[in-house]
Amino acid sequence: MEKVVLPPIPAKRYFTIGEVSELCGVKPHVLRYWEQEFTQLRPVKRRGNRRYYQHHEVLLIRRIRELLYEQGFTINGARNRLDSHGRVNGDDGDEAEIGAQSAAQVAVDVEQLRKEILQVIDLLGG
């Protein structure tokens, strides 16, 4: 699935499930399901069990969405990836770009490593 451009996150303290649905391109029932699957996702519940998400949770949902929909992770895979890499970086609003840069850097490093190995094989007369 190709990368979807999501709207900027407004400077607000709390977001309703409808607002988060729009900001993250995910239906409300999916958000409720993800709450059960990802322990990091814990919106505040107020009157009548209404959910209110904070900025860091909107970032987390965008990261989960990216892992599942764009990178093809399973729920378990995405959960493990989030656990092993910590929570979403709350200082930067676009962690998807950071992830893409890191992936590009890894790809460049692997290609460089491949070239060096081929040079070593040539030196050894292989």
Protein architecture, described:
This protein is mainly α and 126 residues long. The protein has two domains: 8-93, Multidrug-efflux Transporter Regulator, Chain: A, Domain 2, CATH 1.10.1660.10; 96-126. The chain has five helices and three strands, in the order βααββααα. It has helices at 17-24, 28-37, 55-70, 75-84, 95-123; strands at residues 15-16, 44-46, 50-53. It has a three-stranded antiparallel β-sheet. A hairpin with a 3-residue loop joins β2 and β3. The longest helix is centred in the last third of the chain and has 29 residues, at 95-123. It is elongated. The termini are far apart. The model is unreliable at 87-95 (pLDDT under 50).
Strand and helix map with partners:
Elements: E1 15-16, H1 17-24, H2 28-37, E2 44-46, E3 50-53, H3 55-70, H4 75-84, H5 95-123
Antiparallel strand pairs: 1-3, 2-3
